[in-house]
Write a structure and sequence with these properties.
The complex is a heterodimer of chains A (86) and B (196).
Chain A: H1 24-39, H2 45-57, H3 64-78
Helix pairs in contact in A: 1-3, 2-3
Chain B: H1 13-27, H2 33-46, H3 49-61, H4 63-71, H5 73-79, E1 90-94, E2 99-104, H6 113-116, H7 121-124, H8 126-134, H9 136-142, E3 152-157, E4 163-167, H10 179-182, H11 188-192
Parallel strand pairs in B: 1-4, 2-3
Helix pairs in contact in B: 3-4, 4-5, 8-9
The chains are: A mainly alpha (86), B mainly alpha (196).
Chain lengths: 86, 196
């Protein structure tokens, strides 16, 4: 079992703007879900349930934002916005 | 992670999926690229652990505020102008000489966005989520944090309803410091509880 802090530099977040994303697509995935829910005046509850399921189903080393994208696709599919063709 | 969004290379499958979602939502008129840009920028630049640090510093210098903060975290944090998504029910956990608090979300990555911004990578990792509950002192040691045997470690599992913020103990030797001088002493890791 590897230490959970492996590869994480010690950070002093006394300024805002810490890099929260490893790649551009991750920040887009976050922003798209946030914008979509905001446009519906909806909180995160429904998305969070999809996210919990997606994380639980995926192998433990699956990147977090891949599960996030899966969760968002399912939410959109449930809303009839996205027709999935897996 | 080697994927840094390098330009010129073929998009990866996950990049294509995200692009497809964005194109679809824009084409359907459900949102605009500019709105997404603005949200990302807000979370990357304006919302972050500095907000939480201000809350902690205020609690250190103002006993009345500290009492209100412990009684109703959401309301007291709102007094400083912080609130919003994922901050509807904030509970503040006070560290004492007898108890050290640390926060985890075992199911996903629940996190108090209005005061800490977006969670760091390790907070979302399977290893942290699974191990902090099972062997907290070992995981804390990996963060360089040793909690003496006589001090209880309390692990709090965030839920869909509640977001936790740890109120660390005020460091010794800071009696003469102003609120503004105290803010930089408070780190994100203090407020998650992985640092004491």
């Amino acid at each position: 079992m590897s230490p959970v802090t492996a590869g994480v530099p010690p950070e002093i977040p006394r300024v805002n703007g810490e890099l929260a994303f490893d790649a551009l697509w991750e920040s887009r995935a976050f922003g798209l879900a946030a914008a979509y829910l905001a446009s519906r005046d909806e909180d995160w509850a429904r998305f969070r349930r999809h996210l919990m399921d997606a994380i639980a189903e995926a192998p433990p080393d699956t990147p977090y934002y891949e599960a996030w994208v899966t969760a968002f696709e399912r939410l959109l599919a449930g809303d009839g916005v996205l027709v999935t063709a897996p | 992670m080697s994927d840094d969004g390098h330009r010129g290379a073929e998009p990866s499958p996950i990049e294509r999926r995200v692009d497809a979602i964005e194109s679809l939502l824009v084409e359907k008129g459900l949102l605009t690229t500019e709105v997404v840009d603005a949200i990302v920028e807000t979370y990357e630049q304006d919302v972050g652990p500095l907000n939480g640090a201000k809350v902690v510093a205020r609690a250190w210098i103002d006993d009345d505020y500290r009492a209100r903060l412990l009684a109703d975290g959401t309301a007291a944090i709102g007094e400083l102008g912080f609130g919003g998504p994922e901050g509807e029910h904030l509970v503040v956990l006070e560290n004492t000489p007898a108890v050290h608090n640390v926060v985890v979300c075992t199911l996903c990555s629940c996190y108090p966005w209005p005061v800490l911004g977006l969670p760091p990578r390790w907070y979302k990792s399977h290893a942290y989520r699974a191990r902090m509950v099972r062997e907290p002192r070992t995981v804390l040691a990996e963060f360089g944090t040793t909690v003496p045997d006589g001090v209880e470690v309390a692990v709090w599992d965030s839920s869909a309803e509640v977001r936790y913020l740890v109120l660390p103990e005020r460091p010794d030797g800071t009696d003469g410091l102003s609120e503004d001088d105290l803010v930089p002493l408070v780190t994100r890791d203090h407020m998650i509880g992985v640092v004491r």
